[in-house]
Design goal:
Largest sheet: 9 strands, mixed
Structural class: alpha/beta
Shape: globular
Length: 264
C-alpha cells in the first residue's frame, strides 16, 4: 500500500458475509471499481491509480474471502453468493452506473457480477481475465502445485518467473501475493469458467484486453472465444504483454488510455 497514493477515504463496509475494505480515490467523474487478482489486494493497482483517479472516482477493493483488509465472517454458498456480497457493497456506497474493472481472477469476478447482479453496472473491463473464456493452462498446476505444497522459495521463484516472463519475486507486489497465499486460508467456492449460455446472456458492455504473451492460458483462444460468444464486446490482444498487463510502462499507458476512453 505504500506505493499507492493516499486515499481520501477508506471504508470498512459490513455486509452479510463480513467486512469489505474499500479505498476511494479521486472524487469527480464516473465510478470505476477495481477488483484485484487472486490474493493481490487493491495494492496491485498502485501504478494505475493516479491516472484513473485524475479523471474518475475510483474505488479499489480488497476482495472478500481473500488476503487484504477485508474480513470474511460467513461462508459463501456458491459463486452467486460472492456476487451478492459485492452488490451489498455497491448498495452501501450508493453506487450505480459502475464501471467494474478486474485483472486476472478479478476479471472473472467482474463477469460473475455481470451474470448474477448486473443492475448497478454500466460496463465491465477485463484485464487478461482467467477462467472466463478459457481454462488455466496445465502448466499453471504443473508449476504452481509443487510450489504451494512444498512452499519452497525456489519453486515459487520458478512459478513467478514462468508466469510473468521474468523474475519478479523480490518485487513488493509479488511478495504481497506470496504472503497471502502462504498465510491466508481462503474459504471460497471454486472458480470455474461460466457456461457458454451465461456468457452469451451478458448485456453489460464489455471491454476485454488480453496479454499476447500470457502464460497462464491461451490468450488468443480466450480472446477468440469471447468474441464469438459476445460479438458486441470490445476485445483486443496486446501482442507484447504478459499476464500482468500493466507490468511494462508502454502497456500500462495503453491500458489506462483504453479504460478511460471506454468509461468516457
Amino acid at each position: 500500500m505504500a506505493e499507492c497514493p493516499q486515499p481520501p477515504a477508506v471504508f470498512n463496509i459490513r455486509t452479510r458475509h463480513g467486512i469489505t475494505r474499500v479505498y476511494r480515490y479521486g472524487g469527480d467523474g464516473p465510478p470505476i471499481v477495481l477488483l484485484p487478482g487472486l490474493m493481490a489486494t487493491s495494492a496491485c493497482y498502485a501504478a494505475l491509480l493516479p491516472a484513473l483517479a485524475g479523471r474518475c472516482t475510483v474505488y479499489a477493493i480488497d476482495t472478500l474471502g481473500e488476503a487484504g483488509g477485508s474480513v470474511q465472517k460467513a461462508p459463501f454458498k456458491d459463486i452467486r453468493d460472492r456476487a451478492g456480497a459485492l452488490d451489498d457493497v455497491f448498495d452501501h456506497l450508493g453506487l450505480t452506473g459502475v464501471h467494474l474493472v478486474g485483472g486476472s481472477t478479478g476479471g472473472w469476478h467482474a463477469v460473475n457480477q455481470a451474470i448474477h447482479f448486473p443492475g448497478r453496472l454500466a460496463s465491465i473491463g477485463l484485464l487478461d481475465p482467467t477462467t472466463v473464456s478459457a481454462p488455466f493452462a496445465r502448466k499453471v498446476f504443473w508449476y504452481g502445485l509443487p510450489a504451494a505444497v512444498l512452499d519452497s522459495e525456489r519453486l515459487w521463484r520458478r512459478f513467478v518467473t514462468w508466469s510473468a516472463g521474468e523474475d519478479l519475486l523480490d518485487q513488493p507486489a509479488a511478495r504481497l501475493v506470496l504472503a497471502g497465499i502462504r498465510c491466508y486460508r481462503a474459504r471460497i467456492p471454486f472458480q470455474v469458467c461460466p457456461s457458454e449460455e451465461a456468457l452469451r446472456s451478458l448485456e453489460v458492455p464489455t471491454l476485454a484486453l488480453f496479454g499476447g504473451r500470457s502464460a497462464v492460458h491461451d490468450s488468443a483462444d480466450a480472446a477468440s472465444r469471447l468474441e464469438s460468444l459476445l460479438p458486441q464486446a470490445d476485445v483486443e490482444v496486446l501482442p507484447d504483454a504478459g499476464h500482468y498487463l500493466y507490468l511494462r510502462p508502454d502497456d500500462r499507458d495503453l491500458i489506462i488510455d483504453r479504460v478511460l476512453k471506454w468509461v468516457g
